[in-house]
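Data availability (excerpt). The following record was deposited with the supplementary files.
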Amino acid sequence: LSHIHWPTTARLGRLMTMEFEDDNASNMAWIVLDLQEDVQAGAGEESTEEYGVAIAASLAMALLDADLPVALIAAGRSPINLAPGSGLDRRTELLDALAYASAGGDIPIFDLLEDHRSEMRSGGQLFVVTPSEDPRVLEQLKGLGRSGVGGLRLLLHALSFDRVGTSASRDDVVPSAPEGWISCGDDLGASVAAILDKADQRR
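Predicted structure:
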């Protein structure tokens, strides 16, 4: 019963479990991907949904390459709830889960983080990939930081996706902010590398 994830079970109306490979691990990484339908922008390959999935996959592979156990949480059309794990099997599980990930969920990123915050261990790293600008998410990350969890929000700037194909300049749609901002057309490889560098500097 201790490994049944009750908040997610209550929201979805069916039993969800967490499978822990190493219950004592603290040096781990959590990726929380926002797939709430109402906050997505753009269409097809130029959408926050596609960019979010691609970023989550790139982050996961880089973190596994660094020998960190990786967890993935998302609440899209089908929920993803992979507890921290490592090795070749975890790579396959993560890539398979993200290959079928799609927006369509109705759980806001704030609530998703609140449901899972008790599972995040001191010494771990948290990456939140979202188009949502809900200020409460930053407050959550600050609270987790006080508990020893390093958190970064990777904000997919929705306005840049909605204005694809217009004459708007990038200066009009990309605000300056001290966190990971990603806009439509950005080099995702370079963006993920910069985010990982920032996470390393905070450790």
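Summary of structural features: Residues 150 and 201 are 10 Å apart (CA to CA).
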